[in-house]
Specification:
It is built from ten helices and ten strands. The protein is α/β, with parallel strands linked by helices. The chain has one domain: TIM Barrel (Alpha-Beta Barrel). Strand 7, helix 8 and strand 8 form a beta-alpha-beta unit.
Length: 295
C-alpha cells in the first residue's frame, strides 16, 4: 500500500492501537500519511487515556541560561527542578556552570545539556567530571546511530538519561519516531519522549497539523515510554493544550515563579492548571524526578 496520502486508518491498525499492541513500523509510517488528523488524534487520545486517564503532569523548572551567568538567581519556592539551558563553550565552562548551579539549587534535581554535545566536548571523562560537580541528569538524548552507546556511557558515569527529544525538526518524522523507539528498546529506563523540535528552522517551518500528528504518532508508537512531553515554555499554551488532546500527558518547563503582576489568572501555576482543566483533564504537579506531588 502506498503511504503518499491515506484518507483513513485501517481497522487493523485501530484494533492494534486500542488493544495496546505495539504498532509495526509500517503501521507508524502509514499513520504518518493519514490525512484525517482528527481520527489519528482521537486514536492517540484513546491510548493516552487508557494509560493515564485524565491525569496530566507538569513540572515547574528554574532555568539557568549558560549564556547569562551574571543573571543567575536561586530557584523560587515553586521550583521542582533546576535546568541548565544552552551549550557550554568548553569542558571547563561546563564543569564551572554545574558547580555554580549546584551551589544555588538548594537540593533540587539538576539537569542539563544534550548528551551528544557533552560527548563531543569531552567524552566520558567530562561526563564523570559533571557528575562529580553535581549534575544529576542529562537533559536530553537524541536518537541516532551512536545514541545507545552514549546513553550507556552517561549512565556508567552515574548520570540519569530519561528523556528523548529532538533539537531540530527531522526531515523524516515517522523515521525519527521509529529510531527513537529503537533507542528505548536498546537502553530502557526512558521516562518521556518529547517529539516536537526544540529549535525551529525558519527555512522549513512546520505546520500545526505536522506538530499535532507528531504528538499523536509518538503516543501510538511508544508503548514502552510512559510520558509524551511538550515544552510549555517553547510551544506555549495553545499548541500545548491541543497536544494534550491528541496523546501528550506531560508539560515540561513551566515557569517556577509565582508572578502575579499580570493578575492572578496569569500567574504561571494558575495558568497551567487552568489550561489543563480547560482541556477536560486533571493537572498533577510532579517533581524533577518524575514523581507525582499529588496529595
Amino acid at each position: 500500500m502506498s503511504v503518499d496520502a491515506i484518507s483513513s486508518i485501517r481497522p487493523a491498525v485501530i484494533e492494534a492501537a486500542r488493544a495496546g499492541r505495539r504498532l509495526e513500523a509500517a503501521d507508524v509510517r502509514e499513520l504518518a500519511a493519514v490525512t484525517d488528523i482528527l481520527a489519528v488524534g482521537a486514536l492517540a487520545d484513546d491510548a493516552r487515556r487508557a494509560r493515564h486517564g485524565a491525569a496530566t503532569s507538569f513540572v515547574r523548572v528554574h532555568v539557568l541560561d549558560l549564556a547569562l551567568l551574571a543573571t543567575w538567581t536561586a530557584p523560587p519556592a515553586g521550583a521542582r527542578e533546576v535546568r541548565l539551558a544552552g551549550q557550554p563553550a568548553s569542558p571547563v565552562a561546563a564543569v564551572d556552570a554545574v558547580q555554580r548551579a549546584k551551589a544555588i539549587a538548594d537540593g533540587l534535581p539538576l539537569r542539563g545539556f544534550v548528551l551528544a554535545d557533552v560527548l563531543r566536548l569531552g567524552g566520558a571523562p567530562l561526563l564523570a567530571e559533571l557528575k562529580s560537580a553535581g549534575l544529576d541528569e542529562i537533559a536530553l538524548v537524541e536518537p541516532g546511530a551512536d545514541a545507545a552507546a552514549a546513553v550507556q556511557t552517561a549512565r556508567d558515569a552515574g548520570l540519569g538519561v530519561r528523556v528523548i527529544g529532538a533539537i531540530a525538526c527531522p526531515s523524516d518524522r515517522a523515521g525519527w519516531i521509529l529510531e527513537a523507539r529503537a533507542l528505548v528498546d536498546a537502553v530502557g529506563g526512558i521516562e518521556a519522549v518529547a517529539p516536537l523540535a526544540d529549535a525551529a528552522d525558519p527555512t522549513t517551518p512546520t505546520t500545526g497539523f505536522d506538530d499535532v500528528r507528531q504528538v499523536a504518532l509518538a503516543r501510538l508508537a511508544f508503548d514502552a515510554v510512559p510520558r509524551v512531553q511538550v515544552d510549555w515554555r517553547r510551544h506555549g499554551p495553545k499548541l500545548a493544550q491541543v497536544a494534550l488532546t491528541v496523546g501528550a500527558d506531560d508539560l515540561d518547563l513551566v515557569a517556577a515563579d509565582d508572578d502575579t503582576s499580570r493578575g492572578t489568572r496569569r500567574a504561571p501555576l494558575e495558568e497551567i492548571r487552568r489550561n489543563i482543566t480547560a482541556a477536560g483533564l486533571t493537572p498533577v504537579e510532579r517533581d524533577g524526578r518524575f514523581a507525582s506531588l499529588a496529595g
